[in-house]
Write a structure and sequence with these properties.
alpha+beta, eight-stranded antiparallel β-barrel, 661 residues, Dna Ligase, domain 1, D-amino Acid Aminotransferase, Chain A, domain 1, 17 helices, globular, Rossmann fold
Amino acid sequence: MFAKLLIANRGEIACRIMRTARRMGIATVAVYSDADRDALHVGLADEAVRIGTAAAADSYLNIDALIDACRQTGAEAVHPGYGFVSENQNFALALQGVGLAFIGPPTAAIEAMGDKITSKEIARQARVPTIPGSVEAIPNAREAAEMAAEIGYPVMLKASAGGGGKGMRVANDEASCLQGFERAASEAESSFGDSRMFVEKYIDTPRHIEVQVLADRFGNTVYLGERECSIQRRHQKVIEEAPSPFVDEHMRETMGEQAVALAKAVQYESAGTVEFIVDADRNFYFLEMNTRLQVEHPVTEFISGIDLVEWMIRVANGEKLGFGQNDIELKGWSVEARVYAEDPERQFLPSSGRLIRYQPPLEEPDIRVDSGVSEGGEIAIFYDPMIAKVITYGTDRTAAIETMLEALDEYYIDGVSNNIAFLQSVLDHPRFRRGDLTTDFIADEYGEQFDPSASGAGSAVPLVLAAAIVNRLYLDRAAKINGQLPGHEKSVAADWVVIAAGETYPVTLTRIEGGYSAAHAGHSYEIATDWEFGQPILHITIDDKPLTLQIRRRRLVYALAHRGMRIEAMVLSPLAASLNTHMLDKPAVDLSKVVRSPMPGLLLRLAVEVGQEVKAGEELAVVEAMKMENVLYAEHDAKVAVLLVAAGYSLVVDQPIIEFE
């Protein structure tokens, strides 16, 4: 077995690989860029080597620097994780050239499956069904539009080397095809150094279902069931589960056998994933094969009991699989939720900054947290915005979802915007609960942004009562401190008004043994809590029903969140609540003459000049943030007065870019 392993990656996947390596008795080496000098994966490794500046091209994608780190530390093997150099055949070849083991498949398999056009042809030859579309790269946008017209709209524009949602666009007509082709090709060139594009039919009401395969170098290949990955936004997976609620036993066996056939066709070794697009009639078509570990691999590990990283290492070490297809038994259900540094309330734009407070849920037998950050750490603009993954297990799908909702209630992040409330809203959505999923689920149910105040079918009353109780705890403490001298005891009023989301909630609170009694709208509730001042997590029992909420106090306002619902509440005396109705609203600032950056990032391109007249919907600028290109469009007709920054400038949130006359 290898004595020392270098992980050519960062963040949560580097930490996750180290976990298995440590259990196997293998020493680990971390690599880091200047932006990751104090990152969690650096501290967890036995050794760490700096490999370059913050830009991925100068560090995590720098093959020479990675190999030099192996030489410095005496590492015998390299695990690439996912992303970066994980599917880079040149990297695998370079390792072989200096006698180092690559924890992954043979370079021929990487090359064949890494090119979507080549892989599609191999799938055809292996008699795996494929989606109608171009079999060769499309050289320009005009020919893409001609091909799309031949296939019939809608079509998917896909970069041959793309992945993770980058270099992909859906086109519904000629105009969106022409524009989408150029944008996707540019994104693919900057992310993968390969701008080749192809066009294929877009499947209506599609599901994204993938099959995990595992193979050794002796010809043994097995499949470990499927994963449902249909909950996506901009082709980026958000929630995954195993098994799929849509797949029956016959379909599972058929898809598994097709995945194994494809893996054998390219003489595959190691862990890999064959992705399928599935229509409403359970017809499935080959999409691509990922020749690496997948982000969502933990759900398969939970239901199969097989550590995929361990077997990747063992296969690379020349070992045979310790089991056959008939030995694999899938039990229970597992769900994974990706926690991103993004703002769902601002069209899911990426967020960056310091983690002022970071408190993930505690790991338990049914709860796993794969995280690559810690409190005080920095979420930088240079890399993927994923903070962590939460993975839960249950005997059935409902149990796994409930455990996930409880775990996310316990997950507290302050300092950067995050999508926890959005994840909870999706998980608790009636359509998700039914398993009625497609890759358009988020677009259909939430549109371009998320409103947490309107999320969920639950009542706001539990959050309102929680705000009233916490406010009462603060007042009781103040009364106790102020009344410490005999004869100076203070009393706290019983009647209060909670104002939240434009509604008023009168609440009467009285002390009872073990807690408080709360009266609201003709109902009485018994409430108990052991909450301590300053804690962001509030465990509270309302009429013997335990609830976990997140709470933050800022002056007179309490921000509370639970199960995807979030409110901001003020707790006032009846007189103060009455006077509050006379407060004037602050007028909104007129921003119609300024274009601001909606996110931190790099200004790639300005599409306008001073004095130019633009029409509503016309492209103004392109901002790159966390490896994705974001186009800013004109909201109305205007004339450009001033360009406030130039291309190549690093922007902060709300920084002015263009001013109109």
